[in-house]
Amino acid sequence: MNKRKSLIRTDTKHSIMDAAEYMFARNGYKGTSLRAITGRAGVNLAAVNYHFGSKKVLLEAVLLRRIQPLNLERRRRFEEIRDNARKLRKKPEAELILKAFIEPVFYFGESDPGSKDFITLIGRAIVDPDDTVRKVFHKFMRSIFELLFKMMSEALPGLSRDVIFWRLHFTIGAMAHAMRICSPDMKELAHSGTATDTSAVIEHLIRFVSKGMKARR
Amino acid sequence: MNKRKSLIRTDTKHSIMDAAEYMFARNGYKGTSLRAITGRAGVNLAAVNYHFGSKKVLLEAVLLRRIQPLNLERRRRFEEIRDNARKLRKKPEAELILKAFIEPVFYFGESDPGSKDFITLIGRAIVDPDDTVRKVFHKFMRSIFELLFKMMSEALPGLSRDVIFWRLHFTIGAMAHAMRICSPDMKELAHSGTATDTSAVIEHLIRFVSKGMKARR
DNA sequence: ATACAATTAAAACAGATGTTTGAATATAAG
DNA sequence: CTTATATTCAAACATCTGTTTTAATTGTAT
Known about the structure:
Two copies of one chain form a homodimer. Chain A is mainly α. Chain A has one domain: Tetracycline Repressor, domain 2, CATH 1.10.357.10. Chain A is built from nine helices and no strands. Chain A has helices spanning 2-27, 34-41, 46-51, 55-87, 94-111, 116-125, 131-155, 161-181, 198-213. The radius of gyration of chain A is 19 Å and the shape is elongated. The interface between A and B is large, with 53 and 53 residues. The structure holds a DNA duplex.
């Protein structure tokens, strides 16, 4: 049967991607060897180059698998906000836009257990010192950032382009940092007794950035 | 003479540290080889292990050289704020505390030309996927963060420990991200025509985080 | 069953990595 | 100058890296 064949094929591919996501998130791109990935996945070393072609393409696949549905959800929520605003003949609300941008990242990480690593991975990809990682990531993120920028300009027409640009980047920085702290092996950072419950963090974060975003001047 | 000897010794040591700082900032810890460092420094490969013992110790030295005076300056400003507040029998102001924490990083980078790299380096060390980097960095930062936490708790007694903790981390995340964008080879990120002037960024940043910090609840 | 393609497996590849070694050189003191 | 110490240097070390190769195995149709 055709089903059987393709199932087996995608099984190894998926194992590799899962293992890679896990390892990349914890040790970074440079810090993860193909042997560590294939070892964890329980497949042969050569399988990576057979199925993906190279380590770099594997990384792209790992990132894209999560970022694509993530940004789709963000777009959906952006349009929802725009539609509602038009109906009410109002400007879209900054806080809603930020929620639409931030919440999906964390909730995607909660739904699929495997994608807990992906929160860390994304949080790090944003700033990875390795050119490969950063360029791949920015390639996937540029368009959604520009949409975010546009929406926010509509929501806060009193602010200059520069101010919006920088505040959005502060937002992303704060978000990425929160994502990393929320990662499994970073709880070390938290003070003893500090709540690291995800949904609470999201609320704190959104409150924080929307206040900063809406500051006068 | 003793002077001559120690001058020569520290000369190679300094060259190595400068080169290492430059390379670590651009390519990360894992992404930088000792050969790249010694090549740039114009010294022999073995010099690193002779003078520092290992790549890891070199990293610690590079970080410590900048972080020590940086945190000294932060402490000085913290105490200044405390003294002034006591004189006026008022609580210390959150915005001043944030300025005391944030400004020195950027200004240190502007004074010494070589330490422009260090802004990037610090910005990345905060989140480097490599355990070595992150643990070394946190070791040096823990005490100053706790002081920051204490000061902020005095400034904003209405907020819970959790809220202050998280908001300070959002602040650090935003700051680190800003530091990375300000780095030489990351301007790619900025929209065309966006001002990347350092002092302007600092002002935007402080405005942003102090608004977020002081949000009710 | 046979032939064909897709996948897996083990081994080897060339190159880069941090570190060590032992000889050569420079510097200081006696 | 001579000796002792500190530093530099080139070379080699063992190990790890991503990738390629070649053979064996598997699955799927004819």
